[in-house]
């Protein structure tokens, strides 16, 4: 065994038949289909709904009342449920009562008429079935490189696993902490003594506390305001699930820890838990709807609780005789010590308990998982330690390697222009001064930091010129959107021959204040207006893009910025200016992102790719990103779904690199491959196109785009795809199909197997690589590192790593450990959570900070040329994750995908509507 062999253990363990447990299968008679259809017809007639039956309410009742997993299968409109899977056998009377009560609640039976004696043919059919006791493992299909199972199998195994994990108390920080499962396969810390708590007075920095102290000895000490001393609570919540990894032929138990910050009111919450009296029963996970004082139990959860209260004779909410609502007003206030009903804060906001559990708690959970399963954790072997070869580095925020390159003009030519023009649009003098200094520093003209004229072309260094212009009416927020087009057309300097025009634009944005105003508008408070309807940014961006100008917005600084770098004597005027601007991180990021939008790619990319075991051939590197979103009224489907899909390409051109992007053909017929900057301008000037991932023509259109580019490439191309967004579109991107082969036409099951698979062999990708971030709970996080000596002795390794690991048991799956760059900082919070958990943290200020742990990116080499090793492709992908055009740190996805994501994010309509995959309730 080689020396310095490093292994990484993930927060995941292999599953066995025993660990997956058993279930009772209730196979319904054929005639139950008639009863399901009859019930759905009555339900739709009473409610006016066109949706499917809310089966989730029935399952919640069964899970909570029977302390069991519960899954109906199938649950589509065309195929009603044919069987029920329970991990615990329930008596016929229990089953009948649960179904009968759920059916009455579903049909809006008055509360005083609901009865266990209700005549229900559906409930009778449930009760008449004699269940079959089966092992979950027997319903899992294992191939040489894949795991496949029906949906109910994953859910049943996950439920059994969460119960198993909760049976053993968690040992951490010298404590023995009980865990309690819920009906959604989470385990939570529920006992109040083991919750984390803090208040704002203790969480505030010491210098701010001085403001509350007496000004003189004669002054009376001031009592702190109530909100400052109000105690807030948070709990450890761990998602437990059966998962799979690409090319690994064994199912896994994966744990994903979170800090669940508890709200002191129900208003606005989306997720809540209620604890039954019996500690052996799981917590009921409930969904809430509505806004503000109109918050209410979501329909499915209401049905579940309606049935629960009568089945178990156990009230959920304390109520007075005057309360008429199921969720009474008295239950809306959750302040004080948490009780049996707890709600999750609805979205990320300021809170005296920070996010993240820290490395120490992840390690404790890893040991807990290994103990309860009796299995060794899933491991990977380190195959590359240093991945940041030739990565972007800055000095005081400036990318000198790019901007001082003697061949910068050739780099610009590869981007499609011979020089750059920066149009600096401002409202206020303070921002003008800031922009002026930033431009003078980054483009190597420090003598211009103290003065540039308005409305005149000023030659900067680095083949760049600038034009400053005051445009208060255009940039101010307000309802005058109809005038912004004409105001944009009147701007000076919008066009110049063979020149890429960029705009550095001032804008006002206060996230906290805008959230407050938006909530007020939703509550229809008098005079309240949603600030996003008055926002100038999307309109300015769209109108500038009509002229081919790319806007980069910059907000005023609201607090004094401080640099953590040590002071030293400046040797040049440029360095002196850089030291003065060192703390203006947002300003430097704005300049960097502006240059990224221009498509400037430094030749250092070649070294990053080819060093060591990386790819030596000069292939092009393409990235595919997708994002689906619906309109604001997506619940009622009043707007057509939209699909943003972006293909980017980094193509070698001699010693340089061209950045390109593909735009789908729009209604005006325009579309095709353009240089990266031009493609962004065209994209921003048009709406996000309508479409969905389910469109059968989508893979063919993407194949056409690949063909259009591939026929101009000499050495072929490698395609990187985001597993988070593209997996449903192509069969061979799914883990379960790792053993499936495409036919000669590039099809699998009659569908295009992979992007480019339907093209002629000479136009297909040389390799297809799928990357998936651990932001997706299916990817486990790194937990432990071990060093193995030459003699095979194993010892503890470092607590963190940024290396690339090959998953043991596979030849094509790799995991890149990612250490958040905040963990490398100089602040005390950078090391928080490394040696202790939140339970023993006495520093209340540190308790309010984010505690970071490692994350990971899965790199799956789906296809590659026969006879070639997967490592060079995985290593190149990992290095491209360290080579963002405008970012010094590691990204979740490689450069081509990251550039596509940024192009999507810069679209004026991005996040103006709601992505259907967004979960705002994760804590």
Keywords:
disordered C terminus; 13-stranded mixed beta sheet; 923 residues; alpha+beta; six-stranded antiparallel beta sheet
Give the averaged pLDDT, no decimals: 89
Poorly predicted regions are: 633-638, 912-923
Strand order of the largest sheet: 29-28-27-26-30-33-38-37-36-20-1-34-35
> How many beta strands in the DSSP annotation?
38
Helix content estimate: 25-40%
Radius of gyration: 30 Å
| Strand residue percentage | 15-25%
Shape: globular
Biggest sheet character? 13 strands, mixed
Structural class by secondary-structure content: alpha+beta
Q: What is the number of helices? A: 27
Summarize the structure in short:
This protein has 923 residues and is α+β, with helices and mostly antiparallel strands. Helices cover 27% and strands 22% of the residues. Strands 29-28-27-26-30-33-38-37-36-20-1-34-35 form a 13-stranded mixed sheet. Strands 2, 11, 12, 13, 14 and 15 form a six-stranded antiparallel sheet that branches.
